[in-house]
From TrEMBL:
Gene3D superfamilies the record matches: Tubulin/FtsZ, GTPase domain (3.40.50.1440)
Keyword check for Endoplasmic reticulum: no
Annotated GO MF terms: GTP binding; GTPase activity; metal ion binding; structural constituent of cytoskeleton
Protein name: Tubulin beta chain
PROSITE patterns, per the entry: TUBULIN
PANTHER family, per database record: TUBULIN (PTHR11588)
Originating gene: LOC111923940
SUBUNIT field: Dimer of alpha and beta chains. A typical microtubule is a hollow water-filled tube with an outer diameter of 25 nm and an inner diameter of 15 nM. Alpha-beta heterodimers associate head-to-tail to form protofilaments running lengthwise along the microtubule wall with the beta-tubulin subunit facing the microtubule plus end conferring a structural polarity. Microtubules usually have 13 protofilaments but different protofilament numbers can be found in some organisms and specialized cells.
Organism: Cyanistes caeruleus (Eurasian blue tit)
GO CC term (a single one): microtubule
BP GO annotations: microtubule-based process
Length: 293
């Protein structure tokens, strides 16, 4: 079977990665200890796409969590599914990037990248047939933008024939007031265009508006934004649990096309014929897109 390696980078990216694994584990019937407690054999049919089966019928995510400071790692470890991850797959520094793209890409990030690549190789070697890599990161800070794009370029060099997908969170002044965020994002975009096969653009401002307008949350938190993105990522990555290469080529008809928009639309039932016909067009209207106009 084909397998996908997933890893996360930066504060919001790392927390988003943790939330994503909560959603995926729930779908596959995996509890916080890594044991299967589902109610359908279908939940185990493609579980080896995202999980390694360890001793004692335990399932361990194929996830590498990366940051230049330990705070995010501590947050993930103390979360509901913190014990499900392989301890050796937490790779972090001590200094942070200080919202500086250059620090993440050229100095602090460059010092840590070899350690990350060692773990990437180890996880890749455990795959029967590696489809590719999936990165969740934020483009607003220094680690997700600078080190995130450095990792992408290094992995692309080492695995040039594997798919590289990213879920890239764009900055917004509604969520953060850090003045250098637009510069970090701008410096990252050309790296994504050059080194990824597909980038799903997720806009913090659009997420904020959906939480505020559709979900009626008065003060949306990063946790609220991450849960919204994780639910959408789960839908998008469903194809990754089947034939990633096939769907990739159907979605990207032109070699120069890299970026995709994703939409989220609450639905009461999957079997209502009218909803089935309307759901895709409605998900693509501006106020349901996870990126700004």
């Amino acid at each position: 079977p084909s397998l996908v390696l997933v890893y996360s980078c930066l504060q919001q990216g790392g927390q988003l990665g943790g939330t994503f694994w909560e959603v995926i584990s729930d779908e596959h019937g995996i509890d916080p200890t890594g044991s299967y407690h589902g109610d359908s054999e279908l939940q185990l049919e493609r579980i080896n796409v995202y999980y390694n089966e360890a001793a004692g019928n335990k399932y361990v995510p194929r996830a590498i969590l990366v940051d230049l400071e330990p705070g995010t790692m501590d947050s993930v470890r103390s979360g509901p599914f913190g014990q499900i991850f392989r301890p050796d797959n937490f790779v972090f520094g001590q200094s942070g990037a200080g919202n500086n793209w250059a620090k993440g890409h050229y100095t602090e990030g460059a010092e840590l990248v070899d350690s990350v690549l060692d773990v990437v190789r180890k996880e890749s070697e455990s795959c029967d047939c590696l489809q590719g890599f999936q990165l969740t990161h934020s483009l607003g800070g220094g680690t997700g933008s600078g080190m995130g794009t450095l990792l992408i370029s290094k992995i692309r060099e080492e695995y040039p024939d594997r798919i590289m997908n990213t879920f890239s969170v764009m900055p917004s002044p509604k969520v953060s007031d850090t003045v250098v965020e637009p510069y970090n994002a701008t410096l990252s975009v050309h790296q994504l265009v050059e080194n990824t096969d597909e980038t799903y653009c997720i806009d913090n401002e659009a997420l904020y508006d959906i939480c505020f307008r559709t979900l009626k949350l008065t003060t949306p938190t990063y946790g609220d934004l991450n849960h919204l993105v994780s639910a959408t990522m789960s839908g998008v990555t469903t194809y990754g649990e089947w034939e990633l290469w096939s769907v990739h080529h159907k979605l990207l008809l032109r070699e120069s096309f890299h970026c995709s928009s994703v939409g989220s639309l609450p639905q009461e039932t999957l079997h209502h014929e009218l909803l089935q016909h309307k759901s895709i067009p409605q998900a693509m209207v501006p106020h349901n897109l996870l990126q700004g106009e």
